[in-house]
Amino acid sequence: MNKKELEIIKEKALENHIPIIMDDTLEVIAKSLKELKPNRILEIGTAVGYSAMCFSEYLQTGGIIDTIERDEERIKEAKINIKNVGVEDKIKIYEGDAVEILPTLNEKYDMIFIDAAKGKYPFFLKESIRMLSEKGIIFADNILYKGYVLSDYNKHKQRTAVRNLREYIKEVTENPNLETEILEVGDGLAISKRK
Ligand code: SAH
Ligand code: MG
After folding, report:
1. What is the dihedral of CA 115, 32, 22, 122, to 10 degrees?
2. What residue ranges line ligand 1, CB within 6 angstroms?
3. How much distance in Å is there from the Cα of 88 to the middle of ligand 2?
4. Ligand 2 center to residue 19 CA distance, Å?
5. What pairs with residue 191 in β-bridges?
6. CB contact at 8 A, 38 and 134
7. Ligand 1 test: best mutation among 11, 12, 46, most atoms within 8 Å of CB?
8. CA 120 / ligand 1 centre spacing (Å)
9. pLDDT, position 16
10. Is pLDDT at 71 greater than 80 in this prediction?
11. Nearest atom within ligand 1 for CA of residue 120
12. Interatomic CA distance for residues 60 and 55, integer angstroms
């Protein structure tokens, strides 16, 4: 894995305002992946491949990341990036809307990273629980959305997103089979495991 190239991709993504994973969020996830040694990872929201490439370092030998992206430009860029970093044998991109692709998947995943349309988080959660392995962990990025989610702010134009993120939190905390913590790293990170 070409780490220098990965660093260049990160800088370019930041310059272009692509919402890649924040350093403190990545640090938390990396720490848990080191322990977990996942065989299969599912990512919803590839963008230009940055987080998937970071996660790929922690896969078991022969492990795979399935990642979903619907934006054609970003898919194109992600493919080039993944090749340049030399991890193309570890990352498979599913091209299209995750709402349509997720129901077609039937793997068991040790780690699932939800990082796409906020209004779809409750649906992504349902599909993620269905495919979560026994030891699996679900991470949901941007769960606090600039603080809107825990405030009583309702008039923001992103209120559908906020409502659905609140719904996600309600579901993970009320689900008797899950244990969840919510961390104020980055834009908020929800971490759910099976009890
Ligand atoms: N995980 C990436 C950042 C993802 S940004 C990283 O940290 O490097 C969120 C991405 O999700 C965007 O590129 C957006 O196009 C994509 N996306 C949003 N909703 C989606 C959906 N319903 N299906 C597929 N991709 C989606
Ligand atoms: Mg994010």
Report:
1. 20
2. 19-21, 45, 47, 50-51, 68-71, 74, 97-99, 115-117, 120
3. 22
4. 6
5. 139, 181
6. no
7. 46
8. 11
9. 97
10. yes
11. 22
12. 11
- Nearest C-alpha neighbor of 32 from the set 146, 162, 137: 137
Ligand 1 atom nearest the C-alpha of 43 is: 1
- Spatial contact of 52 and 26, defined as CB atoms under 8 Å apart: no
State if pTM tops 0.85.
Answer: yes
Number of Cβ within 10 Å of residue 78's Cβ equals 24
Going by C-alpha positions, the residue among 44, 40, 39, 47 that lies closest to residue 12 is 47
Label residue 158 by pLDDT band (50, 70, 90).
Answer: confident
Give 8-33 pLDDT, tens digit per residue: 999 999 999 999 999 999 999 999 99
- Report in angstroms the alpha-carbon separations of 170 from 89, 128, 140, 142: 37, 16, 13, 15
* 153 burial type by CB count under 10 A (0-12 exposed, 13-18 middle, 19+ buried): middle
- Domains, the chain, with CATH or none: 3-194 (3.40.50.150)
Q: Whose CA is nearest to atom 6 of ligand 1?
A: 20
Single-letter amino acid, residue 132: L
Number of H helices, E strands in the chain: 7, 7
